[in-house]
Amino acid sequence: MDGPSLDHEARGKQPGPHVEKRLNAAFVRKAPPGRHTDGGGLYLQVDHSGARRWLLRIVVRGKRRDFGLGSASLVSLAEAREKAYEYRKLARTGGNPVVRERAVEGKATTFAELARTVHERKFKERANNGKHIAQWINTLETYAFPLIGNLSVEDIHQDDLEQVLDPIWTTKPETARRVLQRMKTVFDHACGRGLRTKGNPATGMRSLMRDQRADTKHFSAVPYMEISDLVLDVDQSNDVGALALLFATLTAMRSGPIRAACWSEFDSGLQAWTIPAEKMKTRKEFTVPLSMPARSVLLRAQKHRTKASDLVFPSPSRPAKMISDATMRKLLQSKHPGATVHGMRTSFRTWAAEIVRADHDVAELCLAHKVGSRVAQIYNQAELLDHRLMLMEKWGLWAYGDLEPFSNGNDVEAIIRGRWMESA
User: Fold this and answer.
1) What is the DSSP pairing of strand 42-46 with strand 63-71?
2) Which of 64, 156, 299, 396 is least enclosed by beta carbons within 10 angstroms?
3) What letter does residue 211 receive in the DSSP assignment?
4) Is the C-alpha dihedral spanning 160, 162, 166, 169 positive or negative?
5) Contact call for residues 169 and 213 (beta carbons, < 8 A)
6) Residue whose C-alpha is closest to residue 340's, from 352, 322, 328, 351
7) Is 118 in a helix, a strand, or coil?
8) Domain ranges in the chain?
9) Using CA atoms, how far apart are residues 37 and 84, in angstroms rounded to an integer?
10) Could you give the CA distance from residue 250 to residue 77 in angstroms, rounded to a whole number?
11) In whole angstroms, how far apart are CA 357 and each of 70, 93, 290, 291?
């Protein structure tokens, strides 16, 4: 009795291959999420993340067993069928494919697939900590997956990890340490499951890397994981300095244009803020699309409007003058010693890259940075305005700790558009 017969008999079905259900290479590449049978107990398992792997279900010594035959990106349909045949043949003669499975699974499992598996298991019961859950896998997707994501976990060496870490080891030391720790966790899992025979390549990596900067006691930027705590704290006050700091955070603009902002620079619906060229570092007029949270701050700031000036954030003691450059800084540093208002731009930019993986040009334009040629700069500012607004709306959600739209596979942009319609 061959392997397919064992499987069909276990299901109470007639023996013999179901040829009409056999897969083909094109379907393997494009198959939707779910489990798709090839017959004889061989299945293609497609996760919602897009990861796809081979699964063989056969009877071994009287018990039904499932065997992973590797990633479909590394193991072809023909190879999966060949492996399935070998396993069925081994089981039919009384052998145990488990012994052979561990020897080949590490070769057939990519780092990206195992990382996602570890991520899912690690946080399965910790859904209440959404920010950390998202950050854990996103840092690996941003920094590790492009270089080692498609390599098998068995074949990765320390020099591969060094290529991941070297570009950010001194420029983003905290991020680099987190990436290293998370890669180590993935390889610990690989070693524990017997998927690696060479030990954990991340062990001892810190001692092999060059020294990082020693001045890490004070951070100029508030870590984006702590932004919502800061914003919700500052948001309790309607003082001019607090509102200015909130507006600076939500728009990611420099403190100069914030302090000098005038009501005449905003359109009637507070949808956009057009900053005159003389107030910009680039000496070019710049339009800032305003998110719903940013507009809310402006509405609260209207109580400070005075006949003495058109300033949005006037000095409480001298309304004809803008607030000093120390006003926001002192408030910020009372919450986060060592942090700077300019550092809030860094917080935004890091978040945009690591959490939502925003388009580079969109994120840079949100900061009023130059991108591409002179012609491209003019074109991009006009064409990417809607994209910039959407990114700033996402930042507003994050800043206020409104993370529900980011969870459970939600379409964040659709939720934001729905809220726009509700507020219209």
Assistant:
1) unpaired
2) 299
3) P
4) positive
5) no
6) 328
7) helix
8) 3-103, 113-205, 224-423
9) 13
10) 50
11) 28, 51, 21, 19
What's the CA gap between 348 and 134, in Å, rounded?
16
- Is the separation of the CB atoms in 149 and 185 below 8 Å? no
By CB atoms closer than 10 A (0-12, 13-18, 19+), residue 287 is middle
For residue 60, what are the CA distances in angstroms to 42, 95, 173?
A: 15, 8, 50
**CA-to-CA distance for 105 and 95, rounded, in angstroms?**
18
> Which of the two residues, 377 and 225, has the higher pLDDT score?
225
Q: Dmax over Cα atoms in the chain, in whole Å? A: 95
Percent of the chain with pLDDT over 70: 85
The predicted model gives 128-157 an average pLDDT of 82
C-alpha dihedral, 10 to 11 to 14 to 20, nearest 10°: -120
Determine if residue 273 is left, alpha or beta; phi over 0 gives left, psi from -120 to 50 gives alpha, anything else beta.
beta
Fold for the domain defined by 113-205:
DNA polymerase; domain 1 (1.10.150)
HSE (side-chain half, CA atoms, 13 Å) at 6: 25
Q: Which amino acid is at 370?
A: K
326 burial (CB, 10 Å; 0-12 / 13-18 / 19+) is exposed
CB 231 within 8 A of CB 278: no
Domain spanning 3-103, CATH architecture: 2-Layer Sandwich (3.30)
- Whether the predicted pLDDT of 16 surpasses 50: no
Q: What is the mean pLDDT of residues 303-324?
A: 93
Please determine, looking at this structure, whether the domain spanning 224-423 carries the CATH number 1.10.860.10: no
DSSP class of residue 1?
A: -
Half-sphere exposure of 11 (CA within 13 A, CB side): 14
In the chain, % of residues over pLDDT 90:
49
